[in-house]
Amino acid sequence: MIMKKLITIIEEKMQKAFAEAGYEEKFGRVSVSNRPDLCEYQSNGALMAAKQYKCKPIDIATKVTEVLKNDEAFINVDAVMPGFINFSLNQKFLSDYLMEMAGASKFGCLDLGEGKTIVIDYGGPNVAKPLHVGHLRPAIIGESIKRIKKYAGYNVIGDVHLGDWGLQMGLIIASMKELYPDMPFFAPDYNGEEVSEVPFTVSDLEVIYPNASKRSKEDEAFKEAAHEATKKLQEYDKGHYALWKKIIDISVNDLKQNYKKLDVDFELWNGESDAQPYIPDMVKMMKEGGFAVESQGALVVDVSKEDDKKEIPPCIITKSDGASLYSTTDLATLVEREEKYKPVQVIYVVDKRQEMHFTQVFRCARKTGIVRPETELTYIGFGTMNGPDGKPFKTRDGGVMRLENLIGDINDAVYNKMSKQEGMSDEERREIADIVGLAALKYGDLSNQAAKDYVFDVERFTEFEGNTGPYNLYMMVRITSILRKYKAASGATDEDIKSYVINPAGTDAEKKLQRTLSTMSDTIEAAAVENAPHKICQYIYSIADSFSSFYHDVNIMNEPDEAKKKGYIKLITLTHEILADCINLLGFKEPERM
Question: What are phi and psi for residue 457, nearest 5 degrees?
């Protein structure tokens, strides 16, 4: 069941009140009050209506207020100078809304997507190279956006979009020809037969590529051999292509294991190589359509516009030697995605320094008709993850840190903070530290707006107090503990608790928690529309903080009134269920205890 958002219901009531008072419904706008000490909601519609009706705003507000006072959904309805309408929600109206949420699929969140397809391009690692800290943000931001969009009803396809083609592969193959000359792939009579055993591992590949790259800058003969190997690969020479597939298989298996540690997965493990078959026809179309013209030997498409405030260079389709570029493969990948999936939107989660590249690619795709006019192309440029010195995060010796080492460091930090925890084996402590460490890592990143740079602070991210992943998990674990004790003492089952009823709030803290829970649909919609995981983080923290106040205000287990106690249990059960869905949208989970 899909429910109307609470703010929508309130606004409809306000519009009806304006109409009954003799004014147009359009003036019945409502906003959450920024003065919670005075009221919960406010309308300034009377101020806007005053000019049209040529009377004082306070007179309009007073008439509307008299109508609203008859609506049982509201309490403390007041007209305030110069013409504001202040009001709060009736406690029973709010608790009834929460009960409806509790019984609804996904707590009544709107089905924005209606099954429409979105492709999200995130990850972007190069094969034969280890994941490093630079791969962290696209992986976890992209994964979270994918989960949020799915929750909002879209069919979402995540594509890792591997860097698996071009000169880097030629460099590796040329090196292997020297290191492993006896591999059957290099035999003149190799005919494509299966080779089960190869003499190299992913660790070897991680050494081969940087050495080959460095050597190509100093050894002209080797550089030429690498170019020749690249040419043979791109001509689908049987030996080179079969070896390339082995390299890809070994690399991708390793990448999958590393992404699994981040709880990140992709529906598609495609790469630049998958776009190659689409390039010839795409280039032909651009030429025949008059879009692509020759410029200094290269083939380019002019993507500038008259109203550009800065120069937008042409999009280069092929270089003077006919070679493809990133722009070529990105455009050809769009051709493939349009052909296979007909997405309503394609989202790219890439470093914000790539903005010009995507401006060119998007404009070229639209100008040449590669994408339909209604297909939305979205570039989410993320900021830099910096160290405490404010510069891009590095290892102590100045190198680029491997992602698995970064994950290990934050897990160790959590483990050390848990070292004084009694009644827990070292093995269990380590398992919990890994779960909480991932939450600390992801929440620390996602709580920032994606476009902003941020400081990666292990000490702050792993704190068990304040706006952190561990703190939010601790609140969830506390709820789980209460529910466990309640079930043990009362004999109640999960099925029994489903039949319990949330009571109208009896305290300010209880009402604050209820109001916070009631805004889930608003939060999910905003996060989905704006591609903004940080809004989920803000919501999680507001729930955890509201629950903490409620927990200290009410003695749940010792409440003598059984009906009231059951109402508390139902409320914190809903709180936990909403938090569980929200942390899943960020890509982490709750440990059994902390």
Answer: -120, 100
